[in-house]
TrEMBL record:
Gene3D superfamilies cross-referenced by the UniProt entry: FAS1 domain
Record organism: Ceratopteris richardii (Triangle waterfern)
Listed name of the protein: FAS1 domain-containing protein
Subcellular location: Cell membrane
Matching InterPro entries: FAS1_dom_sf (IPR036378), FAS1_domain (IPR000782), FLA_A (IPR045003)
Low complexity biased stretches: 209-230
A Pfam match: Fasciclin
C-alpha cells in the first residue's frame, strides 16, 4: 500500500509539473520570397496623336490613316535602334495649285508610296539635318519599292533653313513638331512630289522677246547692197557709161563732117 501511494504521488506530481510548464512556441515557417513584378513595357510616342495635337496636319493625318501607313510609321517609332524621321506637310501645303492638280487622281498604291516618301527609316536630329549638304537620301518608299527610287535631297540652305528637295518641289522646314530619339517629326511647307509617281516636270517655256526688240533677220538672207561687183560698177557705173557713149558719137560726127568739108575744098 505504501508503494502504491508513493507511485500515485509521483504520477500526480508529474502531472502538476506538466500543467505548470508553458508550451514552447513553434517558430513560424519562413514565407516564400515575393515574385518580382514584371518590368513595365516601354512607353512609345503615338505618331498620329502627335500630329493631331500639332493642329495643322489634318490632311496628312487623313492620308496616313487611309493608307494604313500610320501602322508602318508607328512600328518604326517603336524600334529604338533605328527610329524614324517624318516630314509632315502642313494643310496649306496641300492647297497649292501644283499639289491639288497632281494629287487628284492617285491610285491606292501611289498614295501609299507618296506618304512613305515623306519619311526616313532612321532618326535624324535637327543638328544632323543642319549638317547636310546636298545629301541624297533614301526614304521609306525607297526600301518598300526595291531601292534606288523615291530619293530626296536634303541640304542646309544659305538662309539657315533645312530644305528637303523633291523632283517637283523645294520644301522648307518651318517648325519642329517633335524631336526625341527615336522619333523626329518636322513640318514642311510643300508636299514632296517624286518623279517615280508624277514623272519629271515639263521644262519652262522660253521667254517671249521684249517689246521694241529688233526682229532677227532670217537665216541665209542679207540686206541688199548698194553696189555689186567691183568698185565703180553698179548704179554709178551705169550712169557714167551713159554719159560716155553720147560723147563718142559726137566726136565721130564731128570727124565725118570735117572730112567732108576738106573734100569739098580739095
Amino acid at each position: 500500500m505504501e508503494v502504491q501511494g508513493i507511485r500515485s504521488a509521483i504520477a500526480l506530481g508529474l502531472l502538476l509539473l506538466a500543467l505548470a510548464t508553458p508550451a514552447v512556441a513553434q517558430a513560424p515557417a519562413p514565407s516564400p520570397a515575393p515574385t518580382p513584378a514584371p518590368a513595365p513595357a516601354p512607353s512609345f510616342v503615338n505618331i498620329t496623336q502627335l500630329l493631331v495635337y500639332g493642329g495643322d496636319y489634318g490632311t496628312f493625318v487623313s492620308l496616313l490613316i487611309e493608307t494604313k501607313v500610320d501602322v508602318i510609321f508607328q512600328g518604326m517609332a517603336n524600334n529604338t535602334d533605328t527610329g524614324i524621321t517624318i516630314f509632315a506637310p502642313t494643310n496649306e501645303a496641300f492647297k497649292t495649285k501644283l499639289a491639288t492638280t497632281l494629287l487628284a487622281n492617285l491610285t491606292a498604291s501611289q498614295k501609299i508610296s507618296l506618304v512613305e516618301y515623306h519619311a526616313l527609316n532612321n532618326y535624324k536630329s535637327l543638328q544632323e539635318l543642319q549638317n547636310s549638304n546636298q545629301n541624297q537620301t533614301a526614304t521609306v518608299a525607297s526600301y518598300n519599292n526595291g531601292g534606288g527610287r523615291y530619293l530626296l535631297n536634303i541640304t542646309f540652305g544659305q538662309l539657315g533653313i533645312v530644305q528637303i528637295i523633291s523632283d517637283w518641289t523645294v520644301a522648307n522646314m518651318t517648325s519642329m513638331v517633335y524631336s526625341q530619339a527615336p522619333v523626329s517629326i518636322m513640318a514642311v511647307n510643300q508636299v514632296l512630289l517624286p518623279e517615280d509617281i508624277f514623272g519629271y516636270p515639263a521644262p519652262a517655256p522660253a521667254p517671249a522677246p521684249s517689246s521694241g526688240a529688233p526682229v532677227p533677220t532670217p537665216s541665209g538672207s542679207s540686206p541688199p547692197s548698194s553696189a555689186s561687183g567691183p568698185s565703180g560698177s553698179g548704179a554709178n557705173g551705169s550712169f557714167a557709161a551713159a554719159l560716155f557713149v553720147p560723147s563718142l558719137t559726137s566726136i565721130f560726127i564731128s570727124l565725118v563732117s570735117l572730112a567732108f568739108m576738106i573734100s569739098l575744098l580739095g
